[in-house]
Design brief:
Layout lengths: L3 H18 L5 E4 L3 E5 L6 E4 L3 E4 L9 E2 L2 E5 L7 H10 L1
Parallel strand pairs: 2-5
Antiparallel strand pairs: 1-4, 2-3, 4-6
Length: 91
């Protein structure tokens, strides 16, 4: 479960990025947008829902996930910190 503080931090990051990147080629998405990754050393596709993701690729045309993220933000919380630091960071 995401706390109010976690949500406010995520919103602040996304809002600031969107404001700075407005009018350019980049798009900013919040936690409901999936990021598609290929698992390291595996023939497997993995999807994550990061707190904030930015893509600047004209090739990112799918409506339901981002293929070419250039930056990903994860706001750490006690319930997600282990996964965010270990599993998501490696991929």
């Amino acid at each position: 479960m995401v706390s109010k503080a976690h949500n406010i931090i995520t919103l602040n990051i996304a809002s600031r990025l969107r404001s700075q990147l407005r009018g350019g080629a980049c798009d900013v998405f919040m936690s409901d947008m999936k990021v598609k990754l290929s698992a390291a050393n595996q023939n497997q596709t993995i999807f994550y829902y990061p707190d904030v993701v930015v893509t600047c690729s004209s090739e990112d045309r799918d409506n339901y996930f981002v293929n070419y993220s250039c930056v990903i933000f994860e706001v750490l919380s006690p319930s997600t910190e282990v996964s965010d630091r270990r599993e998501k960071l490696v991929n």
